Amino acid sequence: MDMHQKRQRLRQLLEDQSECTPIMGAYDVLSARIIEQTGFPVLYTGSFVTGATKGLPDVGLVQLGDLLPLAREIAKETSLPLICDADSGWYHAANIWRTVHEFESAGASAIHIEDTVFGKHTEFAPVLLEQDAMCQRIRACVDARRDPNFLIIARSDAIYLKDDPEEAVERINAYLEAGADAGFLVFKGSVSSLAEYRARIKGPVIVTSVDFQDAIDAETQAGANMSVYWPLAIFAAFKAVKQVCEAFREGRDASKLREYCFDEGLINKTVGYERFNANIGKYGAV
């Protein structure tokens, strides 16, 4: 799919009421290709995993210059729609057009911006952007996009940071009224509670869970259109690399690590050696 087809496909998936679409998070191009080859329909890049790969906590340190290059590479090297975390948008409403233009030009299919000012992933009191100011940012994003199928998603952390679903419902509805294509909720605990307030949200809803207690089927029943599984790939990679390093350091015998390593042929297939060999056969080596 080209860039425009990806965006059209994402909008179709968002509007599908029959099931909740799982969205897998990638932390680099290799993980994105694995997700694509496995058969998932949508990719995601987030500030947490991008910060983690740079040794940074997700407390506002990850910026446009960190997230944009990854988005561009994944969009270029895969055929799936890509939703990109754009944090708070990094700019006030008058300047947020740059965020939209950069991600749109990079080939992303959507961005989400959030109403958190401070407090995410910290022990300190959270601060959310005033609702009216967030609505202005949404309006500015919608006005800035050039492709109407480039989705603007509005995230509220009112449940995650303040444990206030009523405020979350009010905020998401206001953001949808301002022009957002979907609302994005981070929730805690069982997804069964989501159904209680999902019915009062007047548009598509994307969710992500802090602790992933439920299955996709439960999220479908609760009324979620999409669910972002942002940490699975990087958590799996972290655990596997850590186990391999510890086992090799202690046992000093790499031959016992074949469960994790030595599948060079599969990696070569994933990164594109077959395409290179086909091109050599077609055009020659010199």
Automatic annotation (TrEMBL):
Gene3D superfamilies: Phosphoenolpyruvate-binding domains (3.20.20.60). The keyword Amino-acid biosynthesis does not apply. SUPFAM superfamilies: Phosphoenolpyruvate/pyruvate domain (SSF51621). This is Isocitrate lyase/PEP mutase family protein. The keyword Lyase applies. Keywords: Lyase. Pfam families: PEP_mutase. One of its GO terms (molecular function) is oxo-acid-lyase activity. It comes from the Bacteria. Coiled coil: none annotated.
